Amino acid sequence: xxxxxxxxxxxxxxxxxxxxxxxxxxxxxxxxxxxxxxxxxxxxxxxxxxxxxxxxxxxxxxxxxxxxxxxxxxxxxxxxxxxxxxxxxxxxxxxxxxxxxxxxxxxxxxxxxxxxxxxxxxxxxxxxxxxxxxxxxxxxxxxxxxxxxxxxxxxxxxxxxxxxxxxxxx
Length: 170
Fold this sequence. Notes:
Blueprint: H1 6-19, H2 25-32, H3 40-55, E1 69-77, E2 88-95, E3 98-106, H4 114-138, E4 145-152, E5 155-161, H5 166-169
């Protein structure tokens, strides 16, 4: 464990997670929970993630459609963390089929139903989609459509989001 400092490795993985690699967001979040007292297994997991990144270094984010469209995909699992009983929220927002925003983290509160867990992540993504749509409009991109894809108990639900009058949202 002395050859590879765990905290430094986690810092590098966090940078990759936040800036370029949405596919490692969840697993880096899991192994970073043991930053204060890592064991050999945690270091092995961190090294495995580094090997995965090296093996997939040619993988890149691509933007590939002519239609400017924001799509938000959500997922949540109820009370996955056995210590705090908090649920995990995950989401990915793409623009023209390229990932632009992603997150995987424990929710801030403990909920007692799967519906509330999903509601929390849907609310977070809806806010992000509205902010991103407004940002794109400020850049001069008009006619950007927003869609949210929600995974609820293995059923995909597609929700078309409409921009409301800004006075209603404030």
